[in-house]
Fold this protein.
Amino acid sequence: MYLSKARKNIKLLLRDSVLEINKRVEPVFSFAQLEVEILLAEAIAKDRLFLYKNPDYILKAKENRKFKNYLKRRLLGEPIAYIRKYQDFFGHRFKISSDVLIPRPESEELVEQALHLVLFSKPSQLHKNKVDVLDLCCGSGCLGLSLLLARPELRLDLSDISANALRVCRANAKTLLAPSVGTYSYNIYCSDLFMKLPQKKYDLILSNPPYVLLDEFSTLTDAELNAVDRTENGYKPSLCYEPINALIPPQPKIFYKRLFIGLSRYLKVGGLALIETNPRLVAMCRQLIEEKEILLSLELRMDLNKKTRFLHLTRI
Ligand SMILES: C[S@@+](CC[C@H](N)C(=O)[O-])C[C@H]1O[C@@H](n2cnc3c(N)ncnc32)[C@H](O)[C@@H]1O
């Protein structure tokens, strides 16, 4: 039905599209009405309020085609953020593409924690006027750029192994810092962890490295299995749309050991690293940090869902 060529008004389109979603993949799309409204508003380049104020508006042919394409993609499991090519994060709109992870709400907590540290830590810990910050594994740049927008006096480096992800990061830096770009100090590096970074020491390192485990990636929820069964055209769970190297560390133990050795070398004494990780990797991380060559002390923090997700590491 959603592929029908007939052009309908907003009221009918909303009703029929929600029915269509509910018929096909409802257990996965628990917010069908909201999702359809978002896609429809996006297709006609208006906000959702417009839909309520103009239920009789008939879409132009181009808008109609766009909406149907969006709906078709959504029905195949593609996340809304990839369809509309942006995600709001920490009050800013970040461009995204299939080359970067969709910024997550949990990671906003990491930015909040970093901001709190920059504002309130003792001068011995972070030297307030010249704070050097690194966003390691930056993807879209959402962590580092959000922090820089909040504290323009920081000196920020961002790095990622993926040249494609860095293109997105650069575009975000250009757009978000545009109003007064000259006042910001930032550099972007393509590097496998610390390998190609300049020899320098940081006051603060933020990182949301890959942390999904293989079994989490391959296990589908009941709702997803149901959707895979009910859609004939190759429904894929949302994680499958994200870049695999942003999600899964190839060998978690080796990857995290390299990360902690690098943090020991690249942090100033007393400097801090805030790392987001998988609650299931916390025990392994704790064990690695206790090894002799790792010069870090560890504090654990929970996320808003009471899961132990953040490592606060101080260079000793
Ligand atoms: C979970 S994503 C986080 C992206 C972004 N910081 C965020 O919070 O949305 C992990 C990022 O790490 C990058 N990455 C994976 N392996 C890496 C490595 N060995 N060195 C540097 N970056 C790496 C990926 O390209 C991806 O952009």
